[in-house]
Amino acid sequence: MNVLMISDEYPPSGGGAGVVAQQIVRDCKNLGVGIDLIAGSGDFDPSVDNYARNRNKKFLWIYDFKNNLNKLRIKNKKYEKIILNDQTAIYLGGLFLSKNELQNTDIIIHGLYSRFIYDKDSFRKTILMFRKFFERSIVLCNRIICVSKSNSEEFLKYIPQDLRQLVAAKLEVHYVGIPIDDLSPQKCSMRLERRQGSFVLLSASRIEALKGYHLMLEMFCEAIMSGANLTWNIVGSGRYEPVLAAAVKDRGLDEHVFFLGRVERSQLFSLYQEADAFWLMSPAEAVPLVFLEAAYFGLPSLGPRTGGAVEAICEGGSGVVIDDLNGQGLLEGINKIKKNTHALNPNSFATQFDSKKFISTLLSPLF
Questions:
Q1: How do 199-204 and 171-173 pair as beta strands?
Q2: Over 90: is that where the pLDDT of 62 sits?
């Protein structure tokens, strides 16, 4: 079976879509399925049979992609399955894949792709005809796989009325899950900070404004001002980090909030075991896989009642969903975790989301 995946994001660059792309590659390899990859970023991955990276980052990246695609076509003649893994890949698929190729293509929706295409016009989207070729992909493809129910509803909401029925018929919801067989923690030289007697919160993600860090800081600050004894460890890096670090200093929270920098994913697993709760308040995540990873290692989560967080947290089983987005709401969530520690069973919930189920669905009916 020959599979081609196109993904603009690929580790160590990018975010969640790139992590999923890497997971698909490794799950295919474990099943003995050959997979080729065209990526817009990332390092060489020996698990990939044929790896092509689009190296031009300006306008020429489109032609770079076309050349890479043509080289792989010459090698493999025909792919039985093509996967478009993010919005740039969906656009490129519409631009360069043939009608027959698109009919063998599955699209994975991780984020607010349709809103990006239809909500506001921009010069770049107009000149590159993003909407035209995005629509060609979603109209001609085999399936559109959304990674959560909320993700599916949000995607369909922005699709034009004249296409909505056709697109809705292609939509399926399948949880990506986590690669349970590969979740082995490696020893991490770094340790979490913990004020004496405090409840330790751990956050791990790219540090970007859209991840909700401004709101989290406000909630944390209110909780500290009310007398709570908390320590907050933040793992990751990003453009918003200097802004967040300055805000922490301005509020005098240097002894409560600690930035640990970027940590390898396998080493992060060992840090899960040192915290009391995992905390992330990103308002628009499709399904925050970090909640499931934390749960697998027995760490309960605190998240918002928005987006896919409510699908990645089993309330009373793997964590608590926070309704009131303030310090009091955070403390109520923490108290629920403290009171129900013995009743919580995060690992049992997480093991239902094995990525092997997703890859089996993705490769069906061919495999």
A1: unpaired
A2: no
